[in-house]
Amino acid sequence: MPVGTPVTIYRKDYIAPGFWVDTVEMGFDLHPQRTHVATRITMRRNHDSAEKDLVLFGEDIKLLQLRMNGVNLKKSAYTLSKERLVISNAPDQVTLEIETAIAADKNTTMSGLYVSNGNFFTQCEAEGFRKITYFPDRPDVMASYTVMLRGDKKLYPVLLSNGNLVEQGDLGDGRHYAKWEDPFKKPSYLFALVAGKLVCQEEKYKLKSGRKVLLQVWVEEGNLDKTQHAMDSLKNSIRWDEERFGLELDLDRFMIVATSDFNMGAMENKGLNIFNTKYVLANSRVATDTDYAGIESVVGHEYFHNWTGNRVTCRDWFQLSLKEGLTVFRDQEFSGDLVGNETGRAVKRIEDVRVLRQLQFPEDAGPMAHPVRPDSFVEINNFYTVTVYEKGSEVVRMYYTLLGHDGFRKGMDLYFQRHDGQAVTCDDFRAAMADANGRDLKQFERWYSQAGTPRVKAQANYDAAAKTYTLTLSQTCPKTAGQVKKLPFHIPVALGLIDAEGNDVALQLQGDSASSTTKVLELKEAQQSFVFANIDREVTPSILRNFSAPVILEFEYSDEQLAHLLAHDNDPFCRWEAGQRLAMRRLLKLVNSVQQGESLRLDDLFINALRKTLNDQSLDPAFRELVLTLPSEIMIAEEMAIADPQSIHAARQFVRATLAQHLKADLLQAYQDNLTPGKYSPDALSAGKRALKNCALAYLVEWPDTATYALAHTQYQEAENMTDRIAALNAMLHCSSALDKAHSKTRKQVLAHFYQEFESEALVIDKWFTLQATAPTADVEQVRVLMQHKAFSMSNPNRARSLIFAFCNANPARFHAADGSGYSLWADCVVALNKLNPQVAARLARSMDRWTKYPKANQALMKAALQKVAATKNLSKDVLEVITKALA
Ligand code: PHE
Ligand code: ZN
């Protein structure tokens, strides 16, 4: 194999570790240039394993000492390669003493031990622990950890690790120490330490059992006015897991630490969660309603991992969705439950489905498509995907739909009863669900093994004489990389039938006495018919209620049927979906008209259907806002054989402007009706009102007159919270009229003002970059100018995402400029990031996933850009895997 050829790792090659680890003791002498780590590991042979050698992994660290059972090991006693240290013929009982040195200050990858703003952090998932010491760094090796931290008292007054603080004191020489003990066995990827200048908000919290625990949120000095929401979210999470799943916090202390340098959202290290500041810091001045909701769900997510991920973990990384799919499901349910009413829950559901369609459906149709439980990977970091997370959550939700609320709980209880303290597989989870409910879920396994989004086609036939309604469902699944033939899935299809008055009809399957207004049909064959008896009037089917399965549903609805569903469906998801279908149909036609140079028009049925929803006071503002929001440009592109970003943009903007023109009075009214004066509160009702109001504002400026533009400007100036402020700015910068000269001076002024006002708030400056990168006026040249701005930095992931990712992923009409300048920018940035942070680089590399979907001329330019990156020297395996798959 030539040097540099990436190695593919296969799920089928799993072998149990040759040695188990019982205890790990670590001593850290913290120093940015050279942290010294002394580790003592007690191990014992696993006689059941086919692996006879003692295998340790290590990466980018200096090995200073290696002792086995008290004896220094000579170089000849082991083999050391770039990634492994292998000891052959080790005895059955082994105590290893290892000393390593780490240059944390040079570590720009944000994996392993690194320095951020002078403070130390670790990130060990998935394979970062091996950058700290040599270790069997695999999730099925679970051990008890004791950690001693030593460091300069002034530079690192705070010393944190997993579990309980058992000792601390002074070392005399200007340094001090803290000793931490984690009472629970854990895999190495859950190890963490934090050291530095930090302050915390803390609180004693009483669990349901009466036990008191200490909760802390640690941040940099100056940010204590932004921790309350995270603390509230943490307390809500603790209570929710007790109530909904009977799961109690098992530690006496639970800590959250925020850092501005983080590759992902957050990390569930045992008792010491480390978070991206984006998912901790909030007050009304700097954070939007969306930010507040994001914090709540990520705090919940990481907390819920304590049971689903930490107490029960993954046997190997192919099983990642075991913890991630399940924990996303749990955080989605948490947020839904917390709203406290049915519409709020439905709004949350719709938002989650939107994310799935916007991000996961394209992934599942592209070159990186993989099953929820992948069969192989080159770099595991590339598989922290929307498929593993969001589709994984949909798979867990299907158990919930099939087994019911109580049945699902029974399955969870059995899962913990069987597997607490173990490292297990997706099959173990499925078995617990099946066994607890006496159900056969064998076919359900295909949701884990087959990639691609299934298509379900529905056909209906009403026999008025026999009073029967027959629904025929058929399923197919497109081929994906390495998977040509697909077998039928076990698909729960929740169905309702609605009569002409909009009422749900009682559903009774022929030969079945049970009757309900929503029926979960189980589609298991390639094609199946379901016959309903006693249907005495014409009905409209409401199919896939609450989005009961992650599939694409095809049914030939008439416009009138869709308008009827939009006006009446009792299932909020299908009601919203009807509006989206009406919109998508028109958008696709209009894209075609744009391409043909035909004149564009929008019909009254659609305009009036939206008007009706907009003015329907019985509907939650949040729900109305969702209906008023058109399918995104990305979603439209996915519906086309060859996507044409500029025509898509033009068609969508035409619909927005036309709606604004026809609904002007209604929109102004909605704007006035949904003001939220008084003290800011991020609760769902207030947030929903702001969402509708700001949606109305964004429409109003699409068909602007001086008054509507002034409305936006005034809102910007007078806004008392970030939600309203940024929404106003967004409306001013993103409307089509921003393309002509009118108001360009005002726009410049507000942008400059915004920067000055929030210069010291990094998360707000991220928003400032994103606003500009996603504006219709943005172009590559402007992005390159912004990259020279003193506030820009490629090495800070949040900042890189705020500008580069935003432009490449969220401004398709501009990114896909005909001259290929967007692609050159992309290539330059992937190469630059590759040197600094391969994980982040590989994420950006994915912006080109769908390159074969664009017009021929674009394809050629995109391919050239991909090839240019592929030809770069010293490409990380992260980037190489993504690029290779895109070009395959
Ligand atoms: N396990 C983290 C989560 O889902 C995500 C993560 C993965 C964070 C890898 C950092 C590194 O909550
Ligand atoms: Zn997670």
UniProtKB/TrEMBL annotation:
Residues 452-555 form the Peptidase M1 alanyl aminopeptidase Ig-like fold domain. Residues 230-447 form the Peptidase M1 membrane alanine aminopeptidase domain. It catalyses: Release of an N-terminal amino acid, Xaa-|-Yaa- from a peptide, amide or arylamide. Xaa is preferably Ala, but may be most amino acids including Pro (slow action). When a terminal hydrophobic residue is followed by a prolyl residue, the two may be released as an intact Xaa-Pro dipeptide. Residues 34-190 form the Aminopeptidase N-like N-terminal domain. InterPro entries: Aminopeptidase_N-like_N, Aminopeptidase_N-like_N_sf, PepN_Ig-like_sf, Peptidase_M1, Peptidase_M1_dom, Peptidase_M1_pepN, Peptidase_M1_pepN_C, Peptidase_M1_pepN_C_sf. GO terms for molecular function: aminopeptidase activity. Residues 559-888 form the Peptidase M1 alanyl aminopeptidase C-terminal domain. Gene3D superfamilies: 2.60.40.1840, 3.30.2010.30, Neutral Protease Domain 2 (1.10.390.10), Peptidase M1, alanyl aminopeptidase, C-terminal domain (1.25.50.10), tricorn interacting facor f3 domain (2.60.40.1730). Its cofactor is Zn(2+). Keywords: Aminopeptidase, Hydrolase, Metal-binding, Metalloprotease, Protease, Zinc. It is an enzyme of class 3 (hydrolase). CDD domains: M1_APN (cd09600). The keyword Metal-binding applies. Its EC number is 3.4.11.2. Belongs to the peptidase M1 family. PANTHER family: PUROMYCIN-SENSITIVE AMINOPEPTIDASE (PTHR46322). This is Aminopeptidase N. It comes from Undibacterium amnicola. The gene is pepN.
